[in-house]
Amino acid sequence: MAESKVRKAAPAVQRVAKPKKPESKLAMVRRARKINRALAELYPYAHPELDFESPFELLVATVLSAQTTDLRVNQTTPALFAKYPTPEDMAVAVPEELEEIIRPTGFFRAKARSLIGLAAALRDRFDGEVPGRLADLVTLPGVGRKTANVVLGNAFGVPGITVDTHFGRLARRFGWTDEEDPVKVEAVVAEIFPKSEWTMLSHRVVFHGRRVCHSRKPACGACPIASLCPSYGAGETDPEKARKLLKYELGGQPGQRLRPPADYPGQPAPRAGGGNGEPGDAADPEGAA
């Protein structure tokens, strides 16, 4: 019987993926600016999500927003400003009474100390007026660069980049920077965009972080800028499932403000005790812009 011939299989050819060419600095800047333009089209109504009618109210609200949501702050400040409408009033507040009003925002004892301290500083050093310079604002109790930039950009029209947890997260996901420190993120991003864009860029990126590019479950499959994002696939890519993750007006829910701007397409947030079933995103260590 003839010996059967066994044909030896040819060794498998291993296909090695070519390493992706690193993105040049110029290409990254161009892509970053395309993202900003796309976000401007997506959120033409982007705005600060804290209710305020004066620089003092915005300053206080931003300090209160540490470790809580803008919605919770907006539900708290009407009673606060009814009792303490000026820095002079807040500077002489009975701590326990102030604490009780701001209790819903969390860390109310530390926040009360900061509010009384900054109110006294405004009264004693700035004639009861909120200063319009970053160097002065950061000397106030409870006020860091992020809070100062919120106030400067939205109460004084001074361009500033607001690096809260949302902005920092998206700046890294977009490949603009690898930095974790907010001050370093601010410095890097400031070199990418013209100064005139800084304030609105901050609003647009924060809007997108709260509505689409969430911390734990980004809605990649429903993201209009997915083609520009190097982190696409970090979240849900199925379009139908991703759409269910959208928040606020994109998901058919109220926003953060009780008194939103006239061009806001969503519904006003409910007053305290109203409950909207969508309390907000993860808290920001220095406040949510």
Plain-language structure description:
The protein is an all-alpha fold. The protein is 44% helix and 0% strand. It has 12 helices and no strands. The protein has helices spanning 25-42, 55-64, 70-83, 87-91, 95-102, 108-125, 134-137, 145-155, 165-173, 182-192, 198-211, 239-243. The longest helix is centred in the first third of the chain and has 18 residues, at 25-42. The chain is globular. Residues 1-14 and 275-289 have low confidence and may be disordered.
User: What are the segments in which pLDDT stays under 50 over at least 5 consecutive residues?
Assistant: 1-14, 275-289
Tell me about the biggest sheet?
A: none
| Overall pLDDT metric | 90
Shape: globular
Question: What structural class do helix, strand and pairing data support?
Answer: mainly alpha
Q: Over all CA atoms, what is the radius of gyration?
A: 24 Å
Percent helix range: 40-55%
| Gap between N and C termini | 86 Å
DSSP strand tally: 0
Number of helices: 12
Series of H and E elements:
HHHHHHHHHHHH
Strand content: under 5%
